Amino acid sequence: MEFQSLPNFRAVVAGKLYRSSTVDNVTPDDVEKLSNLGIKTIVDLRSVEEFNESSAPRLMDNTFQVVRVEVQDRKPQPPELRFSVKETGSYQDKRHYIVSCYNRHFFTGVLQRKPWYLKIYIILTMILAWLVDTALRTKMKYLKKAIVPIVLSKDQGILQWYKDMVDFSTGSMFAALKILSDPQNQPALVSCKYGKDRTAIIAALVQGILGRKKADIIEDYHKSEEGTKSLYQMMYDEVIVRFDAPKSFLGARKETMQKLLEYIDQKYGSVESYLLSIGFSMEDLEEMRGNMQG
């Protein structure tokens, strides 16, 4: 199905799970097309701040309830998910979940692997940026500019960014997969800003647990090169101009996903072992496989 206002859209599991860029800009015609697919749930991997700063019409949220998901770590028990309604739509059974990949655990983890002198520099830079924002009332403009290079790990490249999300955004991964694999929430759509990076990791984990060949997972990831062509200038302005990241962050090269899957295998043993390490049980995984089968 073609969407004029929803770039990078495609099926992960036909009839069960789809992926795309943000739904903020969908037109009335594309809202109807999504309705025809029966989409009940949107799992949005952006932060609440990203969601709030969007000035797009967000027509989907006229019908979908916007729900913020907070994850409470309870190791060795599975994470606890807390839901709070942010905006009320006209349909109680349609929900747009905000599941941010960037939380305290993510920032702490990324910061901990930095050399001590960089830790001090980063902390001082963030404090200074916060003070400037407070004085000028610039709504986190300078703090965000200080934080994003840390989030992107731009000095080490897009692959390290993906590894950091796998290692440190485990609660978010658990929450997203738990919601998406619930049959009461299907058909579902997973998205982020461009549908290329955070969305790609969730899609790869789903395909991995379903036993898809690595070559197929890699090929699906690579489709985002074509899928984001209409977003290229926006991505360039946001990622390259605004945050001074390398141009490699705009791509979806096959070798990036290949190396990420190799990293998961090397560090955790397999996608299944990774999911077990973040809070799922074997019973959960079997149920997930059954619920996710097309």
Automatic annotation (TrEMBL):
Gene3D superfamilies per the UniProt record, alphabetical: Protein tyrosine phosphatase superfamily
InterPro entries: Prot-tyrosine_phosphatase-like, Tyr/Ser_Pase_IphP-type
UniProt cross-references to Pfam families, sorted A to Z: Y_phosphatase3
SUPFAM superfamilies the record matches: (Phosphotyrosine protein) phosphatases II
The keyword Transit peptide belongs to this UniProt entry's keyword annotation: no
Keywords recorded for this protein, A-Z: Membrane, Transmembrane, Transmembrane helix
UniProt keyword annotation of Phosphoprotein present: no
GO terms for MF: phosphoprotein phosphatase activity
Membrane-spanning ranges: 116-136
Domain of life of the native organism: Eukaryota
Entry protein name: Hypp7683 protein
Species the sequence originates in: Branchiostoma lanceolatum (Common lancelet)
Lineage of producing organism: Eukaryota, Metazoa, Chordata, Cephalochordata, Leptocardii
Gene: Hypp7683
